[in-house]
# Entry
Amino acid sequence: MNIVVCVSGGGTNLQAIIDKIADGTISDTKIVGVISNNKDAYALTRAANAGIDSVCVSPKDYEDRDKFNKAFLETVDKFNPDLIVLAGFLVNIPKEFVERYRGRIINIHPSLIPSFCGKGYYGLKVHEAALLRGVKVTGATVHFVDEGTDTGPIILQKAVEVEPGDTPEILQRRVMEQAEWIILPAAIDMIAKGYRID
Ligand code: GAR
# Structure
């Protein structure tokens, strides 16, 4: 299975995928391309270090959203992927993209959906909201992407304890280590082995 990984920042989830392909945890899968909307994303360095093709497609380089959406879609199409993995990709996904690749796009979200998800909940903001609400358990979710924000069918979830004294940064790191870096590679492996939505 050929996959494209879309990133915006640090790329620790991309790294987890690279490492788990290398150690055989993810079977029969190759990352054929990494797409970033941010040219300064450290994820691009991770891709280069692993010898993976990468491209930056930034909304800033296009006159309007339609032109960006078209360029983004063309970039994905060129890689001809079986699966597209949104691994910390913080861009609104064009509707045409969801239509063309329905059932073949997955996303990792750093909470137990349906808590702390939807518009405005991304990155550290998710953990800030969880701490503010005082939840004692949070986690991460891998789901298929549909037209909504974090509304598609859930593939895997993993719970993580909130601990006294947690800051958003500490909690984010624990959720990554104990949930995201495990369930995102696991979901990719499931799909490589034939898992589909009903
Ligand atoms: C991860 O925590 C991911 O779950 C989150 O952004 C972070 C990216 O980290 N994604 C979202 O919030 C999507 N709504 P990374 O670049 O180190 O993988």
About this structure: The helical segments are 12-22, 42-49, 65-79, 95-100, 124-133, 168-192.
